[in-house]
Amino acid sequence: MTRPNAFRPRVLAVFAALCFSAVAPAPAQDAADELAQGLIRLRGEVEQLNAELELLREEQRVMLAGLNQQKAELSNSAERQGLSAREAREKLAAKQAEIEAAGASGDNLRPALIAAIEALKAHIQSGLPFKIEERLGELDRFRGELENGSVPAQRGVNRLWAYFEDEFRLSRDNSLHSQTIQLGDERVLADVAKLGSMALYFRTRDGRLGQAQRQGSGWAFVELTDASQQAQVRNLFDALGKQIRQGWFELPLAAAGAAR
């Protein structure tokens, strides 16, 4: 009777071992499933990141194309303004040559000076609408003084040259000014940011932002409605207000004929 009792623990031990071996693979299978799910998630995240990266690359390509277009248009505008300035210089030089050839008498000088004044007025009228009335008004007063003799023709030569120098300076500097502009049906006082002779932006006292745009043979001040373009112009005014005259600025391009 003792032999069967002695054998029973062995049977129980073997049975327990078999049960353990049957149950043991379950955690391993769960781990494998979890690993597979993790790999699937990672693959999905990688695909999403690749899609976002491709979208970012496309946005960069579009931005680069836009910047290249801006660069070309700025270059064309600068060439046009440079040509206009050179023509004005040539006209002034021609008038000076006429003056020298005609002699120094007032009667000979006066017609040449008046012709040079009219050439400078035409140059101003063809450029940006920056304080046009004031600049033309000064030249008209100067012409009147020449015609009535209150300014001798000999002294008028130096004064006319100073006007030309002022115009050349205006064509180069970036600066802030205040002027009255025609905005739609109203005339309002505005701050204007002038970028050489290429672009003119405005900011009214009530916060409206915009730019000068060529329309036909003239110019018009047009309000900007796009939020990103408004932010660009606002940043320009902030920079010029801090005396930052040079740097990289992304600015809205005028719809017709102006520059960025």
UniProtKB/TrEMBL annotation:
InterPro entries from the UniProt entry: UCP028069 (IPR016866)
Pfam families per the UniProt record, alphabetical:
DUF3450
What name has this protein been given in UniProt? DUF3450 domain-containing protein
Coiled coil regions, renumbered to chain = 32-105
- Say which domain of life the source belongs to: Bacteria
**Species this chain originates from:** Aquimonas voraii
Which UniProt keywords are given for this protein, alphabetically ordered?
A: Coiled coil, Signal
Q: Which residues form the signal peptide?
A: 1-28
